[in-house]
């Protein structure tokens, strides 16, 4: 059983999907999205392989990309990739996502605002499409 999800709507196909946000500072993590399917890769900053350096919470630096396993779809987790609709595979706009993210977030009533970027402190997990610590085996970089 996964986390409770809020509901978003794809701006391309208009179908609904479940999602949740992760505050990477509170989670001590970094992340990247698959360039092909938009799956989220979460990386625990307390368990980095030797030779991997990540200084900030949030999206990974490009230097980390070669250390990550390919996504199960065959795509690559990249710094500049974006989450995608689970129905039509269209890239989701972080600006258009503001409408449903802020409507669902309890902190909005107290002044919290969505970062309007897929490269900030928050990442999004669409459905249950998340891999954790998907490091390549040592010697396969």
Order of helices and strands: EEHEEEEHEE
Shape: globular
Distance between the termini: 33 Å
Q: What percentage of amino acids are in beta strands?
A: 15-25%
What features would you describe in this structure?
It is a single chain. With 141 residues, the chain is mainly β. It has helices at residues 24-27, 98-104, and strands at 6-9, 16-23, 29-34, 40-44, 58-59, 77-78, 122-126, 130-132. The chain has one domain (6-131). Helices cover 8% and strands 25% of the residues. Strand 1 (6-9) and strand 2 (16-23) form a beta hairpin.
SSE topology:
Layout: E1 6-9, E2 16-23, H1 24-27, E3 29-34, E4 40-44, E5 58-59, E6 77-78, H2 98-104, E7 122-126, E8 130-132
Parallel strand pairs: 3-5, 4-8
Antiparallel strand pairs: 1-2, 2-7, 3-4, 3-6
């Amino acid at each position: 059983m996964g986390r409770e999800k809020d509901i978003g709507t794809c701006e391309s196909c208009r179908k609904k999907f479940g999602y949740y946000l992760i505050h990477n500072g509170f989670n001590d993590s970094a992340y990247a999205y698959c360039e092909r399917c938009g799956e989220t890769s979460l990386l625990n900053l307390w368990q980095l392989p030797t030779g991997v350096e990540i200084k900030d919470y949030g999206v990974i630096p490009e230097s980390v990309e070669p250390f990550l396993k390919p996504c199960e779809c065959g795509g690559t987790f990249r710094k500049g990739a974006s989450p995608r609709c689970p129905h039509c595979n269209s890239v989701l706009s972080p600006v258009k996502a503001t409408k449903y993210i802020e409507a669902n977030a309890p902190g909005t009533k107290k002044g919290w605002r969505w970062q309007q970027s897929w490269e900030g402190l928050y990442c999004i997990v669409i459905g249950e499409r998340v891999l954790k610590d998907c490091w390549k085996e040592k010697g396969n970089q």
